[in-house]
Amino acid sequence: MGQLILRRTLYMIVSLWAISIVAFVVIQLPPGDFVDTMILRIVQETGEHMEEEEVANLKRLYGLDKPMVPRYFSWIGKIVLRGDFGRSFAFNKPTAELLAERVPLTMFISFLTLLITYVIAVPIGIYSATHQYSWADHLFSGVGFMGLATPNFALALVLMWLGFRYFDISIGGLFSTEYRLAPWSWGKLWDGMKHLPVPLLVIGTAGTAGLIRVMRGTLLDELGKQYVITARAKGVDERRLLFRYPVRIAINPLISTVGWLLPAIVSGEAITAIVLNLPTTGPMLLQALLFQDTFLAGSTVLFLGGLTVFGTFLSDLALVWVDPRIRFERAQA
Amino acid sequence: MRLHRLFAVPLVAALLVPALAFAGSEAEEGGDAAAAMERTSFDHEWNDIRFYNHIADYTAATGNTITSFSEAPMLAEMVAAGDLPPVEDRLPADPYVVVPYQEIGQYGGYAFMGRDGTGHWGEAHLLIGIEQLNRIAGDLSTQSPNVATSYELSADAKVLTVTLREGINWSTGEPFTTEDIKFWYEDIILNEELTPNPAKFLQPGGELMKMNFLDDQTFQFSFAVANPVAVEWLPHPNRGVTPIKQAKHYFSQFHPTYVGADKAEALAKEAGFENWVQHFGDKNNSWSELPKFNTDRPMLTAYRLAELGTDLARWERNPYYWKIDVEGNQLPYMDGINVELVQDLQVFAGKIIAGEFTVSIGWYAPLSDYPLMKQNEESGDYTVELWPSLEGSATLFQVNRTIDDPVLAPIFADSRFSHALSLSLDRDEINEVVFQGLGTPRQHTLIKESIYFEPHFAEAYAVRDVERANQILDELGLTWDANREWRLLPDGNRFSVVMDTGAAVLPIHELAVEQWKEIGMEVTMKSFSYQQSEERSKTNQMQMYGGSAGFNARSEAFVASPLFFLPQRQGWENPWGNQWALWYVTGGEGGIEPPDEVKRNIERWEQMTATMDVDEKVRLGKEILASQADNLWVIGTVGEVPLPMPRSNKLRNFPERGGHDWSIGSWTGPQHPSQFYLVQE
């Protein structure tokens, strides 16, 4: 086990280094840079055209006059040596500060969504599998497919309109304006709670539907297997049998994908968040990419990449712990 | 000696009567009329919000006087708590007096706006305005006093003397004087590290301008050659602001001249920058008034940025703002402005019709949503009005006449080819499809209110005549192919060109390309980023270009920068005379020598900017525009397109009409945003 952890840690460092290069280079592959997008925007807003000398001065101020390689090393050097993730051009703030502002809320929403998804999906999946082709199974499947098929952003728009039309909840956002910049208080918490159901419902539906299908499918496979029949023949209590063996195996795919959940929890559902105007990291990343805000985009991608790598590591450990077969294979190898 | 004292008392009185009458009466007197006459003269449907340069002017005009000042309750509380000096000490002894548009406002309330998250906060200036040395007045044309109380151009037009209002304070409470302007000139412009290459407009005659500082309120721009156009800098939203936006007491703390090179570098390193230049630039990061993300920066505007979060920005009133209303109330009326990030434009539209925003700017409230906005006016408790944009043409088409291609070059260089392209455009269809029929189909030229305007400039080749267009192409030797589907080049290949469309292919591009198919022209569209476009233009790769015309269709903007009418700059937005522009900027060393007609236009413009004789100036300007109408250097489509301006019914003193144009000093600058107020319950 100790050796496994050591080996995986080494892999993690190498992957992170590769991710950092990809994050920095790929983001800058589209032609133009932040100053270019800014100039374009100024032209659109004001119709004023900047003189070449002014453009050159601006590029120098943002350090964009240097080639990409020295800029990469200066960026990664600061991260490794000082934990300084660079500054966002557009917000004129350190990237770390921006992430710190958005990550906690994002994680809160995502965890809550995840929790709700699991709490709803796993029991329904189990029920559907054990009561295959019952009317309830058909109903859940039907609803589940609808949830899968409905685009989240469309659902968000419809719910938002309903919320505005019938419940007088302001369109989009997680807080009303008066609480937006205010420090935390009971009022702010309550205000946030009022806005929560729509995002949770929207982000939750697709996930729930998918999970129900996975849970139902794998459990059905397991239920038909020899060991279940044997156990049943030996008179094991049906409920005890179900939760002791097939459910534990059926839950495997859920655990092996936990690694991917970690970055998903932090990045949040970008499209839904944009439509719902949620102050999460997804929309910020999209914006940073669109406006070539190099350090903000690069550092966010690196951060999410790091979480994926770390999450995969965790899920591997969890699998080893949950599934004796994997543990056994490793010991053999 | 000709004195250009536009701000003398007669002008203030004259602002109370329609500007046209003013211009007329002044013309009879001669002399000072010059400056007034050359300007765009708008009819007086425009809201003219009156002002007085001095309290004495107000007394002289109305017999009333202002003896005491009052302030917003939130500031009064701070004064009572000892956190702020009393209002008399914060205001200049002789503040600027604004006559509210509808009524004296109520203090309080936060306005609420949205933005789409582009790294820009320009929209907030709809309610903040900007503070240039001079303002553009309510007629959207003449200059009037603002931060400066008067100016004077010397007879030889080499020295421009400006006098600042006495007693203005920065939002930090420190006095604003010529020291701050001196800091800009000596420590920013003359500092080779901060400004290795000063902008060209600062170097008339090829020599960097000099500045003299006579006392705390008076300074001079001094030029090597006659430079009467410098007067246009004063109300310019960039040039009229740049010299007065760096507070010395704040910015000197990052500058090596004041703290020593070691300390400046150390401060920069500590803040995470590579050198002091980047650190300084970060604190002073604005090209014009638009992006200002530094919450510590001292301001002269009515509001200052107080908080900047990733999804909401908050501006709060500047307690040291230096304007009052006619009852002596310190402006602004509103406590502040919140700007929310709304990334999805559908949601933006939803919020507009729900009446959530105090006011929204045109690019978030597109013309295509106008019917929707109109429909929901009542339920959303807002009013949407159309504000004309002061554009000559929404999108322009250009043919690169200096293309490096032996087959295309003679065709593109022939003005008749541009005539054919223009004649085959169905501008009515474009107007209906893209602009809901609310624009004006026209050739590109200045707006009709301009003093340089002639109706036939706008009519030239602007009515659809496919037969004539075909005839022209036949004359040019572009024969039909066997199926009479496409035109052929003289070398036998099919005529097919690529049109650059800027950042995106717009419906207007697609419509034009379809319409050109009818005369056998195959035009394909490609979009490029700003930098790619700039490169393609500089390396002479662009064949055709279709893009925004910008807002230089007002007289003043035309004189300052006759972009599109002259090959004066080798930029992406102006590729029609690419190599001619290179010839011009390199003084004949590079590029291609332009034909006589183009050279004559360049000479005309150079004479225009140097002459003090207005009749001569107008004559020369009209010659340049006539040359455009004859040759179609650029092909216009639909112009004077209005944009919706939805505003909450709670917002008062806001103009019903204005110009959707930044160059007039932010869109609402002429109407004094500081006197807008929110009805309090």
Structure report:
The complex is a heterodimer of chains A (333) and B (681). Chain A is an all-alpha fold and 333 residues long. Chain A has 19 helices and two strands. In chain A, a hairpin with a 4-residue loop joins strand 1 (87-88) and strand 2 (93-94). The radius of gyration of chain A is 25 Å and the shape is globular. Chain B is α+β, with helices and mostly antiparallel strands. Chain B is built from 26 helices and 24 strands. Chain B has a five-stranded mixed β-sheet with strand order 18-17-19-15-20, covered by helices on one side. A four-stranded mixed β-sheet of chain B has the order 3-13-11-10, with no helix packed on it. Chain B has a four-stranded antiparallel β-sheet with strand order 6-7-9-8, with helices on one face. Chain B is globular, with a radius of gyration of 26 Å. Chains A and B meet through helix 2, helix 3, strand 2, helix 5 and helix 7 of A and helix 12, strand 13, helix 13 and helix 22 of B.
Beta-strand residue percentage of chain B = 15-25%
Radius of gyration of chain A: 25 Å
Q: Roughly how much helix do the residues of chain A carry, as a percent range?
A: over 70%
Overall form of chain A:
globular
In spatial order, strands of the major sheet of chain A run: 1-2
User: Please, how many helices of chain B?
Assistant: 26
User: Which range does the strand content of chain A fall in?
Assistant: under 5%
Q: Which blocks of ≥5 consecutive residues of chain A have pLDDT under 50?
A: none
Strands of the largest sheet of chain B, in order across it?
A: 18-17-19-15-20
Global geometry of chain B:
globular
Q: How is the quaternary structure best described?
A: heterodimer
> What's the alpha carbon Rg of chain B, rounded to whole Å?
26 Å
Task: List key phrases describing it.
heterodimer; A: 333 residues; mainly alpha; 79% helix; globular; B: 681 residues; alpha+beta; five-stranded mixed β-sheet; four-stranded mixed β-sheet; 15% strand
